[in-house]
Amino acid sequence: MSDLAIQYVGGPTAVLEIGGVRLVTDPTFDAPGDYPVGDRKLVKSAGPGIGADEVGAADLVLLSHDQHPDNLDRGGRDYLDRVPVVLSTAEAHSRLSDRVTPLPSWETYRSGRLRITAVPALHGPAGCEPVVGEVTGFVLHGDNLPTVYVSGDNASLDHVRTIADRFGPVDVALLFAGGARTPLIDAYLTLSSADAAEAAAILGARHVVPLHFEHWAHFSQGPDTLVEAFGAAGLSDRLHLLKPAGRFTL
Fold first, then answer.
1. What does the mean pLDDT of the chain come to?
2. Which terminus of the chain is more exposed, N or C, with fewer CB under 10 A?
3. CA dist 239 to 155, 163, 175, 209, Å?
4. Phi-psi sector, 152: left (phi>0), alpha (psi -120 to 50), beta
5. From CA 71, how far away is CA 25, in angstroms rounded?
6. How far is CA 94 from the centre of its chain?
7. What percent of the chain has pLDDT over 90?
8. HSE of 111 in the Cβ direction (CA atoms, 13 Å)?
9. Which tens digit of pLDDT belongs to each residue from 130-142?
10. Distance separating alpha carbons of residues 129 and 127, to the nearest angstrom
């Protein structure tokens, strides 16, 4: 058996199997269409590579945040009811109640021999929290297990440096890397392709599996710019661009 298996579902959603634990990141299973956010909308251009029933049971959901439909949609909310533990932010707990276990930054949740530590994330430039809300990332680690960083919707390389100081080098980084932009803030709300490559270097990541870089109109960058940026940084051999339903194993 592999030490780590990752299946890309689509958008921010992936299935991870590590240390005998099965986890799902930011579950999104809805079809393409327009999804309201207040008086705005986000436009989804493609559905998931596999559906919720095919994903099946999981032990844990790692939810970077609940307030945006590109990270938790209607199908994803239904999926939460099928999973015994959902780790996320205090704000998500306040909105979703007992469905969510809040995990503050640097606190650790244990599942068997796997440890899951919440780490800081910033969904845009400094000071953006009142507009975009609270988000979190995660580091998976444990004795004789690979170290895996799941960025969530983080745009801050300063946070990446802090995480690298505590956990680096990491074996695998799952980087949310679409360079998201909306009219709300004139800045990237998630890592650009160049910042994803820099984050990989900061983390000393052996392997990088991008998530959340396609299937939504508010992404300003995608697979081509990721290939270009990692090539320019001399990190092409670390980049693993999966197709929906594709797998990576370590």
1. 96
2. N
3. 19, 20, 11, 6
4. left
5. 9
6. 21
7. 96
8. 20
9. 999 999 999 999 9
10. 6
DSSP 199-249: HHHHHT-SEEEEESSSSBTTB---HHHHHHHHHHTT-GGGB--PPTT-EEE
Q: What is the pLDDT confidence band of residue 184, given thresholds at 50, 70 and 90? A: confident
For residue 34, report the phi and psi dihedrals to the nearest 5 degrees: -95, 135
The amino acid occupying position 241 is L
How far apart (Å, rounded) are the C-alpha atoms in residues 225 and 25?
23
Rounded CA-CA distance 207/209 in Å is 7
- Decide if 121 contacts 104 (C-beta within 8 A): no
If we measure between CA atoms, which residue out of 175, 154, 151 comes closest to residue 233? 175
How far apart are alpha carbons 211 and 103 in whole angstroms? 22
Closest by Cα among 138, 98, 123 to 37: 123
> Can you read off the two tokens belonging to residue 184?
């709300």
Strand ranges in the chain using DSSP code E only, listed in sequence order: 4-10, 13-18, 21-25, 33-37, 40-44, 60-62, 85-88, 101-102, 108-111, 114-120, 136-141, 148-150, 172-176, 207-211, 247-249
Return left, alpha or beta for 100; rule: phi > 0 is left, psi -120 to 50 is alpha, else beta: beta
Per-residue pLDDT tens digits for 127-180: 999 999 999 999 999 999 999 999 999 999 999 999 999 999 999 999 999 999
Q: State the residue for tokens 């299937």.
A: 215
Tokens of 56: 């099946």
